[in-house]
TrEMBL record:
Residues 3-105 form the NIPSNAP domain. Gene3D superfamilies: 3.30.70.100. It comes from the Bacteria. SUPFAM superfamilies: Dimeric alpha+beta barrel. Signal peptide: none annotated. InterPro entries: Dimeric_a/b-barrel (IPR011008), NIPSNAP (IPR012577). This is NIPSNAP family protein. It comes from Lichenicola cladoniae. Transmembrane segments: none annotated. Pfam families: NIPSNAP.
Length: 108
């Protein structure tokens, strides 16, 4: 199992829109493609309090590439993402990192 950490840096004041988009739009579409989330976080205390951080769980990079490609080109996703950006972008940038658990990690 590998984990993908993704960090969405919200435009000022737009974090609530990102949270709503994930809850109401993204997660139901992910369910359709069997994309597994391993958790979502916002920053309680720290410098980046406009960030949404989440983890996705993948069996392999091949699974990730296949499912992410299908998701990212889904017509419903593309339309609803555009709807959220209608009044300007809600995300200033996205970063992602692929993580491999150690042999002593509690997640293996």
């Amino acid at each position: 199992m590998i984990y993908e950490q993704r960090i969405y840096h919200a435009m000022p004041g737009r974090l609530p829109d990102i949270l709503a988009r994930f809850k109401d739009v993204t997660l139901p579409i992910w369910e359709r493609y069997e994309i597994r989330q391993a958790g979502f976080w916002t920053v309680l205390v720290g410098e980046d309090n406009h960030d949404l951080i989440y983890l996705l769980a993948w069996e392999s990079m091949a699974e990730r590439e296949q499912k992410w490609t299908v998701f990212s080109t889904d017509p419903e996703w593309l339309q609803k993402r555009a709807d959220f950006d209608r009044n300007g972008p809600i995300i200033s940038s996205v970063s992602n990192t692929f993580l491999q658990p150690t042999s002593f990690s509690s997640v293996i």
